[in-house]
Amino acid sequence: MATETLGFQTEAKQLLHLMIHALYSNREIFLRELISNASDAIDKLRFDALSDAALVADDPDFKIRVEFDADAKTITVADNGVGMTREELIANLGTIAKSGTAEFLDRLTGEAQRDAQLIGQFGVGFYSAFMVADEVAVETKRAGAEAGTRWTSKGEDEFTVEDAPDAPRGARVTLKLKGDAHEFADAFRLRQIVRKYSDHIGVPVVMAGEGEGDDAAEEETVNAATALWTRSRSEVEDDEYKAFYKHVSHDYEEPLCWSHNRVEGKHEYTSLIYVPQRAQFDLWNRESPRGLKLYVQRVFIMDDAEQFLPLYLRFVRGVVDSNDLPLNISRETLQDNPSVTTMRNALTKRVLDMLGKLDADDYGKFWDEFGQAMKEGVAEDFGNRDAIMKLLRFTSTAGDSDAQRVSLADYAGRMQEGQEHIYYIVADSPAAARGSPHLEALKERGIEALLLTDRIDEWFMSFVHEFDGKPLKDASRGDLKLAEDADEKDEDAPAPDDDALCKRIADALGERAESVRRSTRLTDSPACLVLAEGDVSEQMRRIMAVAGQAPPESKPRFEINPAHPLVEKLDNEPDEDRFADFANALFDQASLAEGRPLADAAGYVRRIQRLLLGAAT
Ligand code: ADP
Fold first, then answer.
1. Domain 490-518+555-616 CATH assignment equals 1.20.120.790
2. For the segment 101-123, what is each residue's pLDDT rounded down to a tens digit?
3. Which of 97, 140, 143, 158 places its Cα 20 to 30 Å from the Cα of 150?
4. pTM for the structure as a whole
5. Contact 261, 281 (CB under 8 A)
């Protein structure tokens, strides 16, 4: 076939540009990435060979070879794995197929340090070779194919593919080192990097022996070459766990925590699961690949096996190696396999358990990154709801700053004598929540309230009814009967229908309010709006509007604070027109205070102008 020169896809170009021009720190990880790809390619071929042994017959000893030429300043990483066809080569090394890549690249700023971290979450992969090389060649032959293909690029706009009739099975990646990266063409340095990052890979990484004369030709295995999870926990160092995490996750950073377990009995399997420090770039895209690497009896079966964890735990990375699943299991058959369900339940508990054991500092970091996912869990995972509820954290009026978080158990532990509910309020921001008129009476009595400000809070709270036998209550809805005033105030206050002021206001508001009442919530504000327990909130209305749904009609109750000077003034207003302007203006202001849009802003402005003019005369 002819030699072709092709352009990189736009996203690939952008990423390459970064590799070449922006990333200078920690460049040695290029070797980890290439070895990681080689090991994946060998895993894939081992799997294919289960059904077609002929694929590996000519070269059955799987290995990855690292070579260098100190004079020519080149490094080669060669594997005898599955290799690529010409089409695969063009697709895999010319485009980036990850969903959300374009949005991800938009988030990069050109600021090297920040971008380097972001790229870490994205996973740099093969293109990282261009951090140290100004020219990269890949010679590859797909297992079972007749002939191979050669790919070359200087990492700028384009790459070339041509026939490589003599290429052996697998892939051979050769880097021509940049002037400032010659240091890597050195036996000591390369061995050190291999041990540091690739010790735990189940495939031998070999290099030419260091001895003189005859010995020099002998190959030596540089890494430990046993799959890390097959070793016993006591034999594995923390650094090894961390290095293995980087291999499975393609993350630059270290994991936050991990859990390594061997389960024996009815089902036999080993799992090694990690929680990252940072949310993956595509975590909130529910379509993105997720899940664990699945092995059966140490043979790699598939990446992103999503059946082993529920959707909300999609940030977890790691490996599960089963002894009893059939080797020919597929994505489809995984779904209805009863032992998979058992493993999924056990792994879910293990993750929740691991999170529960983190110290406050680490858990705080976790919550900042993945708290939203845990909230999804409350809605999705009924069976573990109690465990997840314990893991929830909230900003609270008990804390001095928004960054300070409390758990439901913290709250329950300091509830007041006679306090029946756990109070919360949903608002757009912590500042809006703290300033809400609905919290005034709670504040006056020193009762804590949780401040919920995530976009999904309203939705997720509809799944949270109680904690430890204590019902949760939205402080902005329905009646707020606080322990001590439940008896007194209700007796004193006239029933809404008998209250002359309330009636007069209700007439002035007409259709705008469901009813008008004297409030037990307010101390400082003149008035507020109160929704019934089941009404759709302002936040939910906006979500529905964005989704193109029409929210149902609902009218709030208007509550007034009779002790407030403005309400007293209102009560003393003899002129009915001015009374109506005044009452409606208070209603509008209560709306504004809660961040609701005014249905008739022009009307509001006119009313205020009339009142101001009246005041001036
Ligand atoms: P990732 O490994 O995250 O998918 P890479 O950019 O590192 O991304 O690689 C892109 C794809 O190229 C891989 O998914 C794989 O299909 C293919 N590939 C890379 N290296 C090799 C190799 N040594 N042998 C076979 N295929 C490879």
1. yes
2. 887 787 776 676 667 667 767 77
3. 97
4. 0.80
5. no
